[in-house]
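Study this chain:
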Amino acid sequence: MDFDLASEELAFRDEVRAFLDANLPVRDPRDWMQKVREKRWVGFSWPREVGGGGGTLMQQVILKEEMARRRAPPLGTCFMGLAWVGPALIQYGSEAQKQRFIPDILDSKYQWCTGYSEPGSGSDLASLQCKGVREGDAYVVNGQKIWTSLAPIAEWMILLVRTSAASEGNKHSGITCLLVSMKSPGVEVRPIVNMAGGQLFAEVFFTNVRVPADQRLGAEGQGWEVTVSALANERSSIAEVEALVRRLEELKQLARESVKDGQPALRDQRVRRTLARFETRIEGMRLNGLRFLTKQLKGEPTSSETSVNKLQRAELEVAMGDFALELQGMAAVYAGRSDEAIAGGKWQQTALSWPDVVIGGGTPNIQKNIIAERILGLPKD
């Protein structure tokens, strides 16, 4: 594996660093958004003809890495739109759909959510039961989705429905992708409140929801293909690794400031070993991400290496949050509204908010099954 950047990549990294030097810290988020849009860094890897930056995969990695290191604001706030909907629209959308939705995604006009998981099916999309029946110029949708990220605040959903039974030998056939306004009559959103009081997830119910046929993305029965198309984007987890590196540095600082047996907790051997294990696992995630990125750059078939990083991140989020509370001792019981809460209760919030990361994108059990079946070649669960 070659860790050196090409000259044009080094030049781009210098450009990004110079921009961050000139524009951080951000005083006006609107000004930040205008500047990164003008540089076409929102949707950076998308084709320029749809408003993206036309950047290379490696440039996109550099951009994300440098932004994460400097704790810069996000490049756009339409998170699901940038991650999933936009790439699917670029590949499968009609010209009218691209013109209708892509500019708003790039301008962060509103949020999208993804209607995939259902009660009893989770990440097994082949078993989804939410139905879409064609009636004239619309699909009538009935069913339920669950663990739908951002549904409480989203204006649009990219929704998978079953429009016909799966064919023999292709369990993902018969699934169709629809673009659904969350304001449509018959759509009901019930937020799921997590332990920290957040409402990132929701149950979504559909009762005779009429979705115009021109809001179908791709052909009927092509929903699975449309969904996985977004995976062609950069998935090396490098930005997530940088976020964990920052979290670890904050955890080390907490250990320096905490007291154990009359001395800084960082001097305790068990504390140091725990922090070292965190650091080792984060470095393993970084190297695994580079392995996956290398395959992408070479145009080689990719497997499911990102499930390894997803599983590691889920475990680290829980373990690091719990360890932060352990370091605080009795002070860990104070909530963020208390003057006695350390760091304003940030670590309590982190420790209680782990479901957002652990469940989102596939639970640890799902990731373990993917690793076992697709990487290790073990029998299906």
About this structure: The first helix runs from residue 7 to 23. The CA atoms of residues 31 and 133 lie 45 Å apart.
